Amino acid sequence: MNILTLGNSLDTYLVIGAVLFGIGLYGIVKRRTFIGMLISAELMLSGASVNFMAFNRFLAPTPVTGQVFTLFIMAIAAAEAAIVLSIIIAVYRNYRSIETNDVVDLKG
Amino acid sequence: MTPSLASAEGLLGLLFLVFVLVTVAGALIAVHTRQLIRAVAGLGLCFIGVAGLYYSLGSPFVALMQVLIYVGAVCVTIIFAVMLADPVESPRPAKTAVFFGALAIIASAGIIWALATLGLRTPWKALPGASGQGSVDQLGVSLLTSYSMSFELISVVLLVAIIGSLVLARLGRSKQ
Fold this sequence. Notes:
Number of strands of chain B: 0
Largest sheet of chain A: none
Oligomer: heterodimer
């Protein structure tokens, strides 16, 4: 297999999706602020979207299903980002901090 | 078949490699920098790379939407939050930092290895009639016929999200 034809095989995209998901997981474990964790969650969503698009391109009988799914993932991610950021701002008003360690007294 | 570097296929392959590099580098910047504003910049870089991947998968419309929604809207919203809140992540105590950092690297490398092996080992079979190229026309028609219910529902979800975030941000202000 030539390195210049990598973009035409399903395996390449599956590996890229797995790498994005893993980097996002690493960020969620390592980050200690809410905004950092939100960024990592967006990375994981991107990995899932790449997988959907790859399966849509190479395997699916109707070639638009994966694209529709990816568009819906984008809309859900935008809604999620808006909600999370307003929660972050509300938390910052009360605690003067966005670090996860400082708000552990919210634990029930 | 091995396309030469000067041909159109060779240049497309080179562009694809550049997009893969941009994606992975942006993702690594997004999780590694201490300054959150740099992490958001890395996230934007990663999204641009993913848009390039979508383009090379044959769907320029979704690539354009990726740039518009993620780079244009989500990144800018996160930048607003970074500017409103405290942007610097305080360092973890040195004793636990090494241990948990190594644990996180091992766990995520294991997940990457498992998912990649699963994808590479499975004999994926293309269903009959897999053509690959979905045009914008087909996408629009199926959004308004097969997926019209989901399309309307996603509009309601976005409306509820906007109202909910406004309410959440206002409640904190009126309490002070």
